[in-house]
Each structure stands twice: as C-alpha cells, then as structure tokens.
Amino acid sequence: MADWKVSVEEIEIFPHPNADKMEIARVGTHGLVVQKGQYITGDRVIFAPKRSIVPAYLRDCYENSETGQTYLKNGHTVKSIRLRGELSEGVVIPFNRVKYILNTAKIEDLPLEEDLSEKLGFEEFTVYVPPQYVGTWATTKATSYSRHDCENIRLYTNEFVEGETVFMTEKVHGSQVNILIHEDGTVELSSKGIIGKGFIIEESEDNVYWKALNKSGMIDFVKNTFPGKFVQLMGEVVPVQSGFSYGFSEPDILFFRLEVDREIVGIKTIRNDYAELFEKWVPILYEGPFDIDKLYEIANKDLVKGQLVKGMETVSGKKLHIREGGVVSPEVPRLSKKGRFPLFCKIISDAYAKKHETDDDMS
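Structure (tokenized):
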C-alpha cells in the first residue's frame, strides 16, 4: 500500500488484454498504461501518481502537441484514466526535464522509492471532505496498526494460483473507516485518509462515522467476542456518496476486513463462526476457483433469465444502482509477494468506470 509520493520506481510490464499496441505497467503499486515496447521490465522512471499537482514548468509535457489540450485535471492535477478498459493511475516525468534539478546525469544514480516531490515542486491535491466527516483529530494510542487498500488485479494476477479457492465480495462505494478496539476496551475510529498519519477522529454525536459505528452494534460484539485482544474492523460507511444509497436512509457500515491481534480473519471463518458480524459484511459475489475471466464477468455482469446484463448492487436486494465492482482475496489470507501487503485486489466494473471518476471521492 503506497503513500502519495513522487519517486523513482522500477517498471514491470504486463500484457494489455484489450489493446495490441498498449501494455500495462506496474509502477510501485500503481497501474500505468503505456505504448507497447516503450518500456521493458526493470526500466526506471520518475513517477507521479494521481492527485499530484504538476508544477508549472512541467505542465506542457502533458498537453496534446497538436491541439494544446491538457491531459491534466483543471490543467494542473494528475488524474486516473481508463485506456481501452484498463486503469492508468499516474504519469511519468521526463528525466531530461528534471535531471539538472536532481543534479545527476543518470536515473540509475537516484535511489529507488525516495520521495522527490519537494525537490521537483510537486504537491498532493487535497480532497475536500465535508465537516460532518472530518471531526476533531487526535493521535492513536496504537503502536502499530493496519491500513487497507485494494490494488488492480491485472497487476497481481500472478500472485494467485489458477484454480485456488478465492472469494470476491462486492466493492461498495462509501467512505472507508478503520476501527481500532484496544486490549483495554478503548475504541478509536479513523478514516482511510488520515489513518496513515496516525490520526483518529474523536467521538462526537455529530460525526457521521461515529453515528454509523454506534448504530452498527459492532463495538459490543468485538468486546464480548474478543476480550483482551487488539481488534481492527474496516468497512464502508453508507450512504455518503451521491447516487449510492444501497437502500440506507441513515449512516451504517458494511464491513470487509477483520483483524484480531494483527492477524486477518478469513471470510469463511467470519461466515462460519461470527454470524452477527457476517450479517453486516459486504455481499459475497463469488466463491470458487480462481479464474480471472470469470471474475471479471461476475464483477461486471448479472445473469438474468439466461442473459448477461449490466451488474447491479446486491446490498439492498433491490438493484438500486450499478455495481462498483468486486474485491478478490484468497480463501486463506496471505501477503502479496510484491509489496508485502494483504492480498486484496479490485476489479472496477466497466459501467461504473464510464460514469464515475474516483479521484476526488471521500476516503
């Protein structure tokens, strides 16, 4: 799981499933669609991920040379785009344009993964979050804790074994919360956007996240089920995103990850042993052998009267809006070989991707 930074990264190349003249590159944990043959695995590039504000002296690098039209959001910010159905989540900074600033003639002389944003004049775009979500911040008492993110499954297909049992749960379009319940019963709550900096949101009756957590009943469940243990629960608060109510009129949480004493508990165990929690779990779309084509089909489509149609959400049971996609994980939780993060991989549905840009969503 990557924090925002501008850095030198090694590229790893994968085939593009829908384009003969394009390839998919993994740059750190980000996906980048590139021209076929432009790079080979092992090449080094300076990479700026989505939400990077490009300094003025480099913005012409991201303009159409014929029309002058910019590829940057609002003329200055890197955005994620889809190219022939695959997500590209950043830009490469031409080394020749910055080598004098970095005081080196070869990119190989620069350390991998070191943050160069300050030297190059890049800043991270800050997403506006309404006050009812922000709350008052404090610092967590946890000395270590987990964070959650999902990576593009196209970049991690080789981390799965063909035919191994996997689960795919519905990817819910809400706002991610991270709940920490300490051995002494202290409850802390944070969001995806601030947990990485060690911040939590102090409890308040006006805060939407705390309203949802208290309504969920999971505080008492955790304390009664795992007394004296350090527990983390992660989930999506709904309804918070415009057009995605999932049938809820008041804030609630759909959970997707449980850790007990820093060990992930698998979905199968949650379903078999913790029925009260499983009732509030994100829906399971698929359980069975790993088959990438089948997983993409299920994330995108529903089978209705023998016909494949656009996939709709299953949380409400009423198909109220399109499905955002699915999240794939192995039956027995494990870390990825590349990046050493818990292996949760996302598939974003084509219908969702065509209508929604996720860069500015609350997280």
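The longest helix spans residues 208-216. The longest strand covers residues 7-15.
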